Structures are given as C-alpha cells and as structure tokens.
Amino acid sequence: MSYFRELQATIDDLADPHRGILAADESSGTIAKRFETVGAENTEDNRRWYRDMLFSAPEVGKYLSGIILFEETLNQTDTHGTPFPELIVNQGMVPGIKVDLGKGSLPGASGDMISYGLDGLADRLATYRERGARFAKWRSVYPITDHNPTPLGLSANAEVLARYAAECQAAGIVPIVEPEVLIDGNHSMMRAARVNEHVWHSVFHALHQHGVTLEHMILKPSMVTPGKAIGKASPDEVAEATLNSLLRTVPAAVPSINFLSGGQTPTEATANINAINQHGTRAPWLLSISFARALQEPALEAWGGKPENHDRAQAAFLKRARLNSLALQGEYSEDMENR
Ligand code: 13P
After folding, report:
1. Torsions phi, psi of 139, nearest 5?
2. 2 Cα: distance to centroid of ligand 1 (angstroms)
3. Nearest CA to 235 among 260, 263, 286, 269?
4. Catalytic residues
5. Rounded-to-integer distance, Cα 291 and Cα 20, Å
6. Domain range enclosing 159
7. What is the tally of structural domains in the chain?
8. What CATH code is carried by the domain that includes residue 91?
C-alpha cells in the first residue's frame, strides 16, 4: 500500500513557515537530568504533569506545528483523561514519536557512536501509528575529535538513518532524520563545517540508496558553530557557515530543515535561527526549528517542580515559542526578550 497522500498531508501540516516543532521526547533518563537541574522529582506523574502543562498551553498551535513524544508520553493522558496525541491534534498540531532506542559506542570506530532500534521497528511503527503518531524522529550522534567521525562512523550512521527513514515511509510515517554533530570540543568553525558536510553528504547518499522520498522527510541538523571550548560565533557567522554547508550537500527536494538547539542557550538559539532566516531567503527549503532545550529551559526553571507555578511555566514556554516563530520570519530582535 502506498501512503503517498498521507505522507504529503503530514508534510503539509508540519512544514509551516510560521511554526516550528517541539522536541518533548526526552527519554526517562534524559528528563531525569533536566528535572534535576530545577529540583523536580523524576516520577511518572511529574513527567505527565509537566508535558500536560506544555501541550495544553493556550494557542500554542499558533507557534508550533508538531510535537515529538517519548513512547511513555504517547500512552499517557492529560488531567481530563484525553490521550496526549488527541490533545495535540485538538491544539492544531501533529503528534510525532522518537523511535531510536538510544546510542552506544560503535565497535571498530573508536570514539564514534551508533544508535539502536532498527530490530522490530516496523512493528513498533505500526503500533505508534495506531496511537496517533504521524511522524517520527531518529537521532544519530557524531562527536568531533581529531579522529572522529571516522569513515566507518559516517557510513554506519548514514546507513542506519536511511534504513529507519525507509521503514517510516513504508509505514505511512514521515521521518525526521537527525544527524547531530555535537558542539563539545575545541574544534574550529571551519572543522565543524567540514564535518557537517561529510555527514550530510553521506546521509543523503544512503537515503538515495534506500529509495527514501526526499519530499516526504525532514532533516534535523546541527547548526555550524565552533566547538564549545572555543567560544561563540555571532548569529551572522553561524547563519553564513550553516547555509553554505547545507547548500553544498542537501538536495532542494527536501521540504524543511528543522534545526536542533544542541546546548545553545534559548536566546542564542533564537538569534541564530533568526539570522539563518534573514540570510536564507533564497534557500530552497524551509529553515525552521525542532528544539528541545531551547524551547523548554525557561519553562522548566519557572516550574521548579511546583504545581503552583503552572501558569508562570506556561507563559515562559509560550514566550519562547512565540519569539522563535518570529525568528522563522527573521523578525526577532533581542530587545523583545525584555518586553
Ligand atoms: P536540543 O534542541 O535540546 O538539542 O534537542 C533536540 C533533540 O531532539 C535531540 O534529539
């Protein structure tokens, strides 16, 4: 059975010039780290409560087109008993699901990583689809060192990302392909640009070999920045380097590129996506976001694990969603942070 129409409809709903995607798909281990920073206890009910607060924020669907969930959240309900996927649809957004099962080291490629979760993926996708997921995400992780990524690290991760994407399309689910090049390290911006180009080139080669329809996928890359230990580049420098590298390697058939925030501060990430859109007016793709931390950090801090902070946390989340929506138009400026 061909899911062409359904895949196209999902792309049409997700790829919106005014709206980004929220990644709220932290595994129970990752959310534990996020909760710890604000003194919140990592219980199932706190995870449910926190995500309910985010997803039910008034008019959040004006700023976000989709939300990526962790498996546990796909099966939970809001305080009124509405399943989260249904709440997300009611809010005018598309529910998605993270499907990789984490990562470990890649044997034979010292320093490189590989993500798990291909075995049994077709069955899991069928179940997720029944529960309302219309798109999926798989994250591969590439550390930069003098020796990494190795040629094997590049080809193995590209192969896994392409197999995942092909499985998704065969199941009627739009794949978000996320090759995350980490910002950790003391590499130059030039080196980050070269590594990202190698990664994207290898990924699109593998996607082609696996027959993935580029029109029905979304790329979720890192922005090109210098290593964290080196310091920061300006938004204009990030935009220029990122666009140059993307133009060299990403086919124009891809409808939307939704960046991850990768450890940038919320204001930095918003300023960078704003500059990318200001510089990228002739780019063939939508230039959007799929942030986790950069959309959630202020809301997490405002909440602090205390239910009485519900409205403050929602306001902090909506502020980031709104400012990022403006940045997708290149209409954000830093003075808006204090208004
Ligand atoms: P960050 O925006 O926090 O990097 O998260 C994006 C993401 O979904 C990682 O898989």
Report:
1. -110, 125
2. 31
3. 269
4. 178, 220
5. 8
6. 4-338
7. 1
8. 3.20.20.70
